[in-house]
């Protein structure tokens, strides 16, 4: 169970999440994603990053089972801080980040892709934020970068998912391909970007972040405040305990 970062020829770095069975990341995993993105920023040889995953799906959010095993609030505090750091590091990575999404992308996974620069997805990929069903809030900031406002609210209140094909219609997903072609598609796009002058690309990334209408770091931190309130009120624990008791396969 790891986060690995590998620099390939022509300046393409892949960061791979591999936490069976569903890539629900423990606290350490989120901080490891952040560290990998900071490594990419610091490495002058890195020209573009592909964020990808092994296994059934791209990301199923935080590991609720780990959180419920930890006494007190340190589990939820660690997960929230780890998610914040991972999302922030992707957004602030000095080079473009391409998210290659296979299967499901849920909860914290939306934070990862929403702060990425480009998204490519397999034709079986689905995206959603089931936080309401877990007694928590978060990642609406990032879902808002993928869908129009009223659809955002519908998806958020109902915990429904949206397909990669529909996101492609909105222009949020750059390409939808068979799963067998996902890595090759992401690599081809990465190599196209990597062929550009890296000085210009790094400047372009900073410039695009500078003209964003929303401060994503501050916006997400605001959302997290409500998650803390729900935890202090005991609401979130009730929902997380119920989730663990059901033994559901997807953890968010």
TrEMBL record:
Keyword Nucleotide-binding among UniProt keywords: no
Organism annotation: Microbacterium sufflavum
Family of the protein in this entry: Belongs to the enoyl-CoA hydratase/isomerase family.
Gene3D superfamilies linked: 2-enoyl-CoA Hydratase, Chain A, domain 1
InterPro entries named in the record: ClpP/crotonase-like_dom_sf, Enoyl-CoA_hydra/iso
Protein name according to UniProt: Enoyl-CoA hydratase family protein
UniProt cross-references to SUPFAM superfamilies, sorted A to Z: ClpP/crotonase
Domain of life the protein comes from: Bacteria
Key words, A-Z: Lipid metabolism, Lyase
């Amino acid at each position: 169970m790891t986060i690995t970062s590998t620099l390939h020829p022509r300046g393409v770095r892949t960061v791979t999440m591999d936490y069976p069975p569903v890539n629900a990341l423990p606290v350490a995993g989120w901080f490891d994603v952040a560290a990998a993105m900071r490594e990419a920023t610091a490495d002058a040889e890195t020209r573009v990053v592909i964020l990808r995953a092994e296994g059934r799906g791209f990301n199923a959010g935080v590991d609720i089972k780990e959180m419920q095993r930890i006494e007190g609030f340190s589990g939820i505090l660690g997960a929230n801080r780890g998610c914040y750091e991972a999302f922030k590091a992707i957004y602030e990575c000095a080079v473009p980040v391409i998210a290659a999404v296979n299967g499901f992308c849920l909860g914290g996974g939306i934070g990862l892709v929403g702060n990425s620069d480009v998204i490519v997805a397999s034709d079986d990929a689905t995206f959603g934020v089931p936080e309401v069903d877990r007694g928590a809030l978060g990642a609406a900031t990032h879902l808002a970068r993928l869908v129009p406002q009223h659809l955002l609210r519908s998806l958020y209140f109902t915990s429904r998912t949206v397909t990669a094909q529909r996101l492609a219609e909105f222009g949020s997903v750059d390409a939808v391909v068979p799963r067998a072609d996902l890595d090759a598609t992401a690599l081809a796009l990465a190599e196209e970007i990597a062929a550009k002058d890296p000085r210009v690309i790094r400047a372009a990334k900073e410039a695009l972040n500078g003209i964003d209408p929303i401060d994503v770091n501050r916006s997400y931190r605001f959302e997290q405040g409500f998650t803390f309130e729900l935890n202090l009120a005991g609401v979130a624990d009730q929902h997380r305990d119920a989730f663990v008791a059901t033994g559901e396969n997807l953890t968010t």
